[in-house]
Automatic annotation (TrEMBL):
GO terms for cellular component: cytosol; oxoglutarate dehydrogenase complex. It comes from Alteromonas hispanica. It is an enzyme of class 2 (transferase). This is Dihydrolipoyllysine-residue succinyltransferase component of 2-oxoglutarate dehydrogenase complex. Residues 86-108 have a biased composition (Basic and acidic residues).
Length: 506
């Protein structure tokens, strides 16, 4: 029985998504609940798993394609049934001898077909031919990437419909094209008859025998770096090469694998070394981050106020109770729980900072949901730690750890990202001494924590070396006045410098 593999129902306010990574290819046998494909939205990465044991029969949307909720993107033959690609392969094996005889007789090439621009995403009027990966007459394999087509939102890949070659390229690199426009002519079977094409086909089979097992993004990276797939050790399923494998190979063996540079004339004006550039399209998440940050700068009256805090009391407290805290709660006592507790108390005292603007109204929130900025491989996200006023120190530490792990693994759900009244970002973990954080709309303020650094400070007329940290509060001056912003930051400072206040509510 054939089962349709569909895009999950997309979260509210998310119009479409992109195919990020296919973990299987047509003809692969899969097990129930095995991850088939990662689908990336503006906020989260969704995994689509196999509904039953079977074989992938057909993949309808390649990596980079824009898809909609519940759109069919692949087909699964349930119960281990052979995929169409397999049956075609077996038929070709049965008829291999006649086919070889036909080739030897110089039979005419197979049928010709048009290579067209895919259907473009909604609201995208046209696209640009970014890169042709093959030349006219060059032999290619079925599903090999022929050309990259760049739109405002995604890069689309057009693959070969069968084994064969391009007989004509109609739209060159840089040309503007529209949906379903013919950009090349494709001939199935042998290439245009030139012996050079035949030898190219043979060398391709020898050098890249596993190209069908490579994802389009991996093939592109290998081509950009001039690395042969056979020289890279794959760590994916069935030895499949991943982008991480290629990057690891380049770091460890870049000099050995890099082709020797041509001799340069002995001229002092010429630059030395390998001067290369790499151009990659922005991911949907990175574009969303960029748009939101730009919107925050343009639509808010943002101002930043600074203070500094002596972290010695908290450091002493952590040192005294770290071991017993970890034994009792099963998690280490970090700085973030103190920051969250102090911020929660300050939000109670200054409700304007916990409010937001909605049109001509000010919305005061009587609950405390704090966004924690988390750096992930895909970019910065701000998952929500909810009802912080009801959480103890251990509950806060566990909640932050869970959100950080989800962010790292791309497992954050929409419920983890929706809402939030205030944001805490800690650039100190990367060594930042001072910064002006940007507000996370529609919130009214964000608190930036920074590096803890020993500095000489005047204490009771004497100079002491203390672990100091700068605090930065960026706020929307349309709703928060200077008095409230400074008062809020002083409250956070006092809570951190005397943690007993958190217990006594003073």
């Amino acid at each position: 029985m054939t089962i349709e593999i569909k895009v999950p129902v997309l979260p509210e306010s998310v119009a479409d998504a992109s195919i990020a990574t296919w973990h299987v290819k047509a003809g692969d046998a899969v097990k129930r609940d095995q991850n088939l494909v990662d689908i990336e939205t503006d906020k989260v990465v969704l995994e689509v798993v196999a509904p039953a044991d079977g074989t992938i029969g057909e993949i309808l949307n390649e990596e980079g394609a824009t898809v909609l909720g519940e759109q069919v993107i692949a087909k699964l033959e349930e119960g281990g049934a052979a995929a169409p690609a397999k049956s075609d392969d077996s038929d070709s094996k049965k008829e291999s001898k006649p086919a070889e005889a036909a080739k030897s007789d110089d039979a005419p090439a197979g049928k010709s077909s048009d290579v067209k621009v895919p259907v473009l995403p909604e609201s995208v009027a046209d696209a640009t031919i970014a890169t042709w990966h093959v030349a006219v007459g060059e032999a290619v394999s079925r599903d090999q990437n022929l050309v990259d087509i760049e739109t405002d939102k995604v890069v689309l890949e057009v693959v070969a419909p069968a084994d064969g070659s391009l007989s004509e390229i109609i739209a060159e690199e840089g040309a503007t094209v529209t949906a379903e426009e013919v950009i090349a002519k494709f001939v199935e079977g042998a290439s245009g008859g030139a012996s050079a094409s035949t030898s190219a086909s043979e060398s391709e089979e020898a050098d890249d025998s596993g190209s069908d097992a490579l994802s389009p993004s991996v093939r592109r990276l290998l081509a950009e770096k001039g690395v042969e797939a056979s020289s890279v050790k794959g760590t994916g399923k069935n030895g499949r090469i991943t982008k991480e494998d290629v990057e690891k190979h380049l770091k460890g063996g870049d000099k050995a694998s890099a082709p020797s540079a041509p001799a340069q004339p002995d001229t002092a004006e010429l630059p030395t070394g390998n001067r290369t550039e790499k151009r990659v399209p922005m991911t949907r998440l990175r574009k969303t981050i960029a748009n939101r940050l730009l919107d925050a700068k343009n639509s808010t009256a943002m101002l930043t106020t600074f203070n500094e805090v002596n972290m010695k009391p908290i450091m002493d407290l952590r040192k005294q109770y770290q071991e017993s805290f970890e034994k009792r709660h099963g998690i280490r006592l970090g700085f973030m729980s103190f920051y969250v507790k102090a911020v929660t108390e300050a939000l109670k005292r200054f409700p304007e900072v916990n409010a937001s603007i909605d049109g001509d109204d000010i919305v005061y929130h009587n609950y405390f949901d704090i966004s924690i900025a988390v750096s992930t491989p895909r970019g910065l996200v701000t998952p929500i730690l909810k009802d912080t006023d009801t959480l103890g120190m251990a509950g806060i530490e566990k909640g932050i750890k869970d959100l950080a792990i989800k962010g790292r693994d791309g497992k954050l759900a929409m419920s983890d990202l929706q809402g939030g009244n205030f944001t805490i970002t800690n650039g100190g973990v990367f060594g930042s001494l001072m910064s002006t954080p940007i507000i996370n709309p529609p919130q009214s303020a964000i608190l930036g924590m920074h590096k803890i650094q020993d500095r000489p400070m005047a204490v009771n007329g004497k100079v002491e070396i203390l672990p100091m940290m700068y605090l930065a509060l960026s706020y929307d001056h349309r709703i928060v006045d200077g008095k409230e912003s400074v008062g809020f930051l002083v409250t956070v400072k006092e809570m951190l410098e005397d943690p007993t206040r958190l217990l006594l509510d003073v």
